[in-house]
Design goal:
The protein has 522 residues and is α+β, with helices and mostly antiparallel strands. It is 30% helix and 20% strand. It is globular, with a radius of gyration of 22 Å. The relative contact order is 0.09.
Length: 522
């Protein structure tokens, strides 16, 4: 077993909270137990020897009040040197924290309805709740209550504190608009069958170095069964998942070996004690690989407005300004999306709101700022090989300046600093995975492997890993050339993946696009 498996057997993982308070009083963390702090959302940040920490904060149901956002901004200023990110699991993320401050931050978060239990670690992570819940006319069912039920019953539950690896759940009532279920361990999709509303259930999605898209379990369950079924599936994974090799411990590997039918039988016989009702597939989203962007009509009147943060990074000053605008123009609440953006519901004057957002550099953008995500990168992450946030923001600036930020249809660009797929490079139109390559002088340079024409919307497939790499210095040029090609040569209403298939993926090889530029074979 790995060391983390040994530690989990020595101490129930959620019991580490007692040690966290001891470490905070003493100002020192026992290095043997450092990785166990993840169960409360706390990680060492790079460089680890400096002792600073990062923290992920869960947002149950994806929604929070403007007062909560002001408190998040204050915590950022008081303890995190003004750092504040919105993650692609709807969480907030701080950096530059010290262990002495962690208990105080926990207390301040709890007072505004947020928590970090299970934000990381081998347990049930943040439940992705549809940010459109209760807002969009395309919705089949408002899943807000169910999302909170899932968080309450599974997040921080000791029964699921020792899973083989991380475990991710998503739920949506708008499957025709969202496709995030394909990359989660469980995805619940509400749809209507013969006049009844229930859920299609998908299992075993996960990316990382070896990626799998989720498979249908083949069932149609009632809303009141959602928590019970999620608990049963998590239990089956806990008891039957693999623990010897952490690289092969996710649910996807168990599904690969058993198959969905045998896994379903396992869940039914050993955990539910009954058979689930079989049912058809829910409809799928054409552009489920990114947010529903811009200003949209809200169910019952008014609008909801999606704010493109630019790679998830937002300052405390802008966060406070957003809180003010949510009260001035909306209903005083906000939501985080699974694509590093934010949403303001209940807006009665979207034009005036949009003008004020534009002044903040947060205009409701339907272009590249809303469809591009980037991970933490080498600035803070111990695993990353390349810089990501600033480079991706610069890339967006370059594309906008060249008139390439608004192609015919949404194009998803995901950039990650290593193979761990924190920002889903395998399911983007253009996915860039950070790596290092030695040049002719033997000096390492940052580079990106290209994964082409994947998607969790229309394409519903993993991208094709292209031969060769794009050096970091050529990233903007490569991307601009590909998008210029798409803009000039795509047929009307042709999605990027269809365009790439029609013309052939060889056309987009780095050495083909960057002809005359130095590239290195993969």
């Amino acid at each position: 077993m790995s060391d983390i498996e040994r530690l989990k057997k020595e101490k129930p993982p959620f019991d580490i909270i007692d040690d966290i308070h001891v470490y905070a009083r003493e100002g020192v963390i026992d290095p043997e137990w450092l990785d166990m702090l993840k169960w409360y959302g706390v990680y060492p940040q790079k460089p680890q020897e400096d002792g600073f920490l990062m923290m992920r904060v869960k947002v149950p149901g994806a929604s929070y009040s403007s007062a909560t956002l002001r408190e998040i901004a204050s915590i950022s200023e008081d303890y995190a040197r003004g750092t504040l990110d919105v993650s692609d699991r709807q969480a907030f993320q701080f950096h530059w924290l010290t262990i002495r401050d962690i208990p105080t931050i926990f207390t301040r978060l709890e007072k505004v309805g947020l928590h970090t239990r299970g934000a990381c670690g081998d347990t049930v992570r943040a439940v992705i709740a549809s940010p459109l819940a209760g807002l969009d006319a395309a919705e089949v069912l408002d899943v807000t209550g169910l999302a909170h039920d899932l968080d309450r019953e599974l997040s921080g539950n000791p029964a699921f504190g020792d899973l083989p690896r991380k475990f991710k759940i998503s739920i949506t009532g708008s499957p025709e608009l969202e496709g995030i279920h394909l990359i989660n361990d469980i995805g619940f999709l509400a749809h209507e069958v013969n006049g009844k509303v229930g859920f299609d259930v998908w299992v075993g999605g996960g990316l990382g170095a070896v990626a799998f898209l989720a498979q249908r379990l083949g069932v149609f369950i009632a809303p009141e069964e959602v928590v019970e079924v999620a608990t049963a599936i998590a239990g089956a994974y806990r008891d039957h998942g693999y623990r010897v090799n952490r690289k092969k411990s996710r649910l996807k590997y168990l599904l690969k070996d058993l198959g969905t039918q045998k896994f379903r039988e396992l869940v039914e016989t050993e955990y539910l004690g009954r058979a689930m009702t079989s049912g058809p597939a829910a409809p799928v989203a054409r552009f489920g690989g990114n947010d529903v962007l811009g200003v949209r009509d809200q169910l019952g009147g008014g609008s909801y407005v999606v704010v493109a943060t630019t790679v998830g990074r937002i300052s405390p000053e802008k966060a406070r300004a957003l809180a003010d605008l949510a009260e001035k123009y909306g209903d005083g609440t906000l939501r985080n999306t699974p694509f590093q953006n934010m949403l303001i519901p209940g807006v009665q004057n979207p034009d005036a709101l949009s003008a004020e957002l534009a002044a903040l550099g947060l205009a409701p953008d339907i272009g590249m700022r809303g469809t591009t995500i980037a991970c933490t990168g080498t600035q803070f992450c111990r695993l990353a090989l390349t810089e990501t946030k600033a480079r991706t923001a610069d890339l967006i600036d370059h594309l906008e300046a060249g008139g390439l930020a608004l192609p015919q249809l949404p194009v998803t660009i995901n950039l990650t600093g290593c193979s761990n797929a924190c920002t889903r490079y395998q399911v983007a139109d253009l996915g860039f995975m950070g790596s290092l390559r030695k040049n002719a002088d033997g000096v390492e340079e940052e580079a990106y492997q290209v994964h082409l024409a994947g998607g969790i919307g229309h394409a519903q497939r993993l991208g094709n890993k292209l031969k060769g790499v794009v050096l970091a210095r050529d990233l903007s040029q490569y991307t601009a050339a590909v998008l210029a090609d798409y803009k000039a040569n795509a047929e009307q209403d042709e999605a990027f993946a269809t365009f790439a298939d029609r013309l052939g993926h060889e056309r987009f090889l780095p050495d083909a696009v960057l002809r005359g530029k130095e590239t290195v074979g993969a």
